[in-house]
Fold Methyl-accepting chemotaxis protein.
Amino acid sequence: MKDRGLLADLGERSGDIALQCSETAGFLGDVDRRIQKDAAHLDDLQVNMRRLSASQGESMAAARELSHTAHRAEQIIADGHDVIGLSLGEVVALVDHVTGLEGHLRQFLAVIEAVGDVSGQLGAIARQTRLLGVNAAIEAARGGAATQGFAVVATEIRRLAEQAGDSSASVAIKLGQLDQDARALIQGVEDNIARGRGAGMHIDQLRLRLAEIASLVTQFGERSGAIVHCTDIASQEVDVLTQGLADFGRSARESTARVGVARAQLDGLERMANAMLNTAAHGGQVTRNSPYIALAEQGAEEIRGSITHALDSGALSMEALFDTGYQRIEGSDPPQYLTGFTAFADLALRPLLDRHSAQDDAVVGCCLIDMNGYLPTHISARSQPQRPGERLWNMEHARNRQIFMDAQTRRALDGASDFFVFTYRQDLGEGRYRALRSVFVPLVFGGRRWGLYEVGYLI
């Protein structure tokens, strides 16, 4: 008797251990999910870092090319500045030379004027000579035969005077045309000199602009060098950060593996503790689980009787009872399903589940579970219509017609015993769990295992 009491006490303690294992495993599961979520974010971050590193490499190459281009531009502008300076100097010299031509042209104009004066004087002499020839011819005519030789000379003088007069007139015309052309040339030279002076001003401005451009290119080259330096430093920092992320990712994966090992060990310990709890519950001693075992057995018997009566009366068929063609309800989240048994379970069995759950304040709910974890119905408080877009609320308050499966439920479904007492984690969605203790009673119809009747309660 003492040994049986010790066994019962050990079973209860095992149940407490299973409860602690369940809660710890739930905590580790939450940690594992967080680590995996962070690891997924870390993977995304590493992808982004690889892209950033690639972009950084491209930026560094571009910065180096920019610096090289700036250096080349600086050299080209420096060389061009010298060439342009020489060219501008030649332009200035040309302007000065053109300016000097103006003086020479004006001197040439003075010479033309002097020649014109001489030509005028020659014309006057030719006129006087012609007049003299005329007078000599008249005097020769008066002298008769004795002055015939003088008459010939007078005629020749007159002819030469006429030729000299014609030549002087022709020279005067040509000198007038030359004077006109020279004055036009001088005017053109003066205009070019004015333009040359304006060009000189533009040349001075161009020199200033070239100097400014050279200064800007020099500054650009200096900034390009600074960019290259900063890019090199940033590239090194990116490499360090990438390596750090890789190390962190490796550490996160190792942590996930260790958490997985710890969870597996806790699951094993939880199974062992639950096995001891279940063994103690079958030991015949009264424990704090005994009232709930009795409630579960009584409730399962009533559920079994109601279903058997419906089968016998034809209100329910075996095909409908064992229907596993789960038809998803459109828009449900989490997914809910309908089978041939769902409507009967809601109508005939839910009132029984409500009444059974109300028999003890510690009972959180009674439900039915088929061999695949499907809950055709639940208590009314857990069978409310789903709210669109409120998954967490639906997970807790619309648990009917959903499919749930965990290790302890699977063990109870597959086990061969009159009942099973387990501590397990009730999934409330989004990583939320609640530690419960449940009594599972198998339901068999027509010699065929349908599933379980469950009474979940808090300890």
Q: What stands out?
A: The two ends are 26 Å apart (CA to CA).
